[in-house]
Amino acid sequence: MGTPTLLRPSVPSSRKGAGPRAAVVARAAATRWGLRGTALLYLGLLVALPTVAVVTRGFGSGLVALRDALTTLGGRQALILTIELAGLTAGINVVFGTVLAYVMTRYRFAGRKLLSTIVDIPFAIPTLVTGVMLRALYGPNAPVGGFLLRHGIHVIFAQAGILLALLFVTLPLVVRTVQPVLLELDETEEEAARVLGASRWVTFRKVVLPRIRSGIVAGGLLAFARALGEFGAVVMVAGNLIGKTLTAPVFITELLSQQKPDQAAAFATILFGLSFVLVLVTERLVRVKHREAA
Amino acid sequence: MSAALREARLSSSIRRRLVHGGLSAAAVLYVGTLVLAPLGGIVWAAVKGGWSTWTSTLSQPDVLHAYLLTGVITGITVVVTGVFGVVVALMLARDRFPGRGIVSAVADLPLAVSPVIVGLMAVLLFGNGGWFEPWFTAHGVQIIYAVPSMVLVTIFISIPFVVREIVPVLQELGVSEEEAARTLGASSFQTFFRVTLKNIRWGLLYGIALSTARAMGEIGAVLIVSSLIQGRTETAPLYIYRAFEQNQDPAGYVVAVTLALVSIVLLAAIEIFKRREEKGLQT
User: Fold this and answer.
1) pLDDT tens digits, residue range A225-270?
2) DSSP secondary structure code for residue B39 in this structure
3) Distance CA B131, CA A50 (A)
4) B257 to chain A, minimum CA–CA distance in Å?
5) A 273-292 residues with CB below 8 A of B?
6) C-beta separation of A278 from A224 below 8 A
């Protein structure tokens, strides 16, 4: 290779056979291991370790803590209520989220960009502020809330309020999961179906829906997982009525304030185990779809 | 063309327009009721109190300290998750090693964990009887029920945003530009700062804006690990929470609206970054 004058001073020349090439290889390896070490240490200390702490604390003595948590007044009802409300949230937002994604990708109309920005608002607004907003609109002293109250409809400190909070928070998750799938879809197939005499509804059901189904399912599961754990938006509008307005995350804070960390940990493990599995399933769904498209 | 056919065409065009209009109306109506109406509600509630509520609320030392603490915690969180997020993303996008799927899942895990559970994790690690409690007590460092644990839980929650934004960008970019730079004699650092970082800048800013929004508004985890002392360990969201608990709704509305305003500005930034990123990928 090159003359000695071209060699960099940093190249180690003490070992025989260690030329500039070996130095480059060694440097690349050092960079790779440096990256790996930093990344694994960061994720390990900040994410994996605390997670292990919750699981071992909750199930360190078998299922005792979990049984205690579920038999604590309101525990089982909180879990059931949370799953029901999260399911309802996912269902409603799957329907309207798909309509929104379809309208935003297939139709051209004034204000389409504005609509798209508004859909993202829940991503940016602090969850607690979401709850405050619902109070401001549906509270007993607000015009809308007062009107509804006179007609016997309770929103704040009732299930309707919790549902509204969950719908608000999870809306962009569904829209932003379905929209890219719709964008990747080839519109000529839809046109072909229309030319061959299929109605708009039949075209949607037979041509579009099968292609975007996994995107819709992924969006729904993400919304469900997020709704299971939502606290900030819910705490401002939820009461503490067992089986009615006491959700699982609020129940965990109650267990903690009752100095029952083991039971809280067991209960928390069930809750986040469920949502973690769902998030993993959606990642897989979305990735498979991408590979098919590519 | 027969009259019947023309009529059929006409009716199909009318029907299409009806479907078009109906779907668009449903979409706009849903977003309007669900998102815009509450936004209008909070602005109305904050304005209703009049100018004096604003000045008296925003001149309270507790409120100012709450903003400051939120700013400090958000700042630390953004720097930490930004720097380490790039490192994790580089490893996930470029490095092939067994267990890569698990690492990727761990990086996504905070998205699935309820903020309340994140607070619980900190209590289990640093609280009474926690794994690290003896060591920190022996060294006289207060972690739980103090600012350090509030920073830690906020970082935990914000970890996935930068990583998730950059990994796809890095994968799409490939390594050819970096290899070219290295062949031309650039060091690893030069290659990273002049080539890689420049290429991922919009994705990075997008991720940072998302984690800023999330960190700024965090309540569930912080509520559990804070000692909730006014003017000491109270963030802006915690202030809002206390204001409503103590029936000081007007002050709560004012602070909530200011947070909402900041997040709308962040949202505008996010939209710009997203568009730039898409443009950058196309060229």
Assistant:
1) 999 999 999 999 987 788 888 999 999 999 998 888 889 999 999 9
2) H
3) 10
4) 8
5) 275-276, 278-280, 283
6) yes
A123 with B152: Cβ contact below 8 A: no
pTM for the structure as a whole: 0.89
Residue whose structure tokens are 């509030």 = B150
Does A26 touch chain B if contact means CB atoms closer than 8 Å?
A: no
Report yes or no: B223 and A252 within 8 Å, Cβ to Cβ: no
Which conformational region is residue A108 in: left (phi greater than 0), alpha (psi within -120 to 50 degrees), or beta? beta
> Could B260 and A133 be called an inter-chain contact, meaning their C-beta atoms sit closer than 8 Å?
yes
The token pair that represents A156 in the structure block: 């704040």
Q: What is the rounded average pLDDT of the residues B40-59?
A: 92
Residue B124 has its nearest CB partner, among A40, A53, A132, at A53
Read off the DSSP letter of residue A178.
H
- Give pLDDT tens digits for B168-221: 899 888 888 888 998 898 888 888 899 999 999 999 999 999 999 999 999 999
Q: Hey, what are A204's tokens?
A: 């949607």
Interface check for A96 against chain B (CB to CB < 8 A): the answer is yes
B124–A50 C-beta distance less than 8 A: yes
